[in-house]
# Entry
Amino acid sequence: MRPLFTQERVARNAGLFLEGLLGDEQRKTGWMRAEAAGDPGPWRQQAILGRRDWDADALRDIVRDYVIEHLADDDVVLVIDETGFLKQGKASCGVARQYTGSAGKITNCQIGVFAAYVSRHGHGFIDRALYLPKEWTDDRDRLEAAYVPGDVGFAPKPTLARRMIARTIAASVPFKWVAGDTVYGVGDIEQQLRRAGKGYVLGVSSAHVFQSWGKRPRVAGTDAALVRLEAPVGRSRNQGPRLHDWCYLELADLEGEPLDDANDGPWTRGLLIRRRIADGDLAFFTTWCPAATSIETLVAIEGHRWAIEDSFETARNELGLDHNESRSWHGWHRHVSLVMLAFAMMAAIRHRANPPVPKKTARRRPAKTKTPPRRR
# Structure
């Protein structure tokens, strides 16, 4: 990240900022980072976030390239999700009373939308965006006080996610699938991914209406109504601490966009349904995948969403993701981008220290031989 800074001392302070995030301190506040860096006060640390002219989006791109360098794979899942940053007062950019899953309620907070790169080698953040509620974008004085750029207006969370996906595709990032919850499940994101030749497993509400075409027998209705069909196309049960039943219903076969040989042939739009065995709770996912894709694969893609939850938890507990003390637009994006870089460094180190098990390949089993018992 050295080329981002015009002065050597600013670059050095940014390096110390990063070391502070990776340090042992429980809180990654300006004072704590300054103490770890040997500074008499937090001013140099704060200047990295608010008083120096450097491009946080350029750092975001550096993080993305670093993650791809170490974690790229053929079957990568791009996971989109959001998290909340609890705040006091009204001055922090984007803060408002709004729902956040991290608190499980409506509270005073900022909301950040993130994209995580998930492969068999590990996972890391590659993009982020701060959500601005309408009460912010409709108040020009408030935007100016938080140094929000003049070309930034209101954008719903799915729009922020769509921009992230577009940046990822434009940068030729290798990925095959996209997963997300009900916030991002229906609309322009689906069309965007189909045109790009990417598969997806995206959450939808129980009230969303699905219709099939080119299928016999023809089905139509809301998710909650379709789940009562007696003969869904395929079932699967995954074993683990939380037990679920899954079923999959194909709704249409279409020709994929002819972008490359991998997209030749029919693709299927379908409905994936998950039932929690303990209480019968249902969840629904719209899918787009090559026609030969198994239900086990779709279940596995949806399961990749845990990785971004794990990333949020680790980034909070270990790297100070929610310890940002800056109130400005630039401060939020700079702090979060530095945390993303710290997380990517940890992911790369873990991958090198713990290489994944190679992919399974079909091979003949060796003849059984008698082996001596092992000592305990």
In short: The chain has three domains: 1-54, 56-177+310-355, 182-304. The first strand starts at residue 77 and ends at 86. Residues 329-353 form the longest helix (25 residues). Residues 16 and 37 are 6 Å apart (CA to CA).
